[in-house]
Amino acid sequence: MLNCMDEFLRFEHVHVARGANVVLHDVNLRIAAGEHAAILGPNGCGKSTLIKAMTCECYPIPKAETRVSIFGRERWDLTQLKKKLGVVSAELPGRQTRTTTGEDAVLSGFFSSSTLWPNLTVTDAMRARADEVIAQVDAEHLRRKPVGEMSAGEQRRVMIGRALVQSADMLLLDEPSNALDLSAQRELRELLRKLAREGVGLLMITHHIADIIPEIERVILMKEGRIVGDGAKRELLTAARLGELFDTDVQMHERDGFYDAW
What is the CATH number that goes with domain 1-71+169-262? Predict the structure, then answer.
């Protein structure tokens, strides 16, 4: 049994509506702080809504049995939550400038902004932390490069640094390999493996089985707004379970801890 202080997330009987439609149905989920897990499911299964519930952008339908706790707390100031939960998006949010560099993008994580606007004050401590993170994600060569001139893979590396800069305890990765070519996918997975070995918690939301790196041992399956499987990777990443999940015939292959399906 997890102590609440050791938990990143606890959802009990969570239902979430988007407009007039209920998108998540009776979700029960517990994830430990520092855990490595993947949430897998087809497009439209409710993964994006689940992310928004985790980041407090969507709130559950009020029910007597519903409980939500994030890092042991039921209520959060969102600016404080962002210091503990780093969300890795595909690109910078909002409007950036043509001169926004990789270093600026990482530093913007302190302010949840799209760039370093003139009204923002960057301290020496912030710059020192950004230097640490840029080294951690192997992005020194991107420090002075404008984000608009980066490849999709380079941008993803910088976005991981941006998410880490406030010393995030967990990284939440939403479809991290989307728009990446084969080389960039491999580099991304190698970086995520490195971070996992360094003790960074990873929660990956994906519909690409190949994204699930060997360090991720737990898989949570979602379909039609419900959790339909939760357990060890070897038990759930089977042709039968994935065929049922994606409503298609599936063949599976495993090599060196990586899985692939076709």
Answer: 3.40.50.300
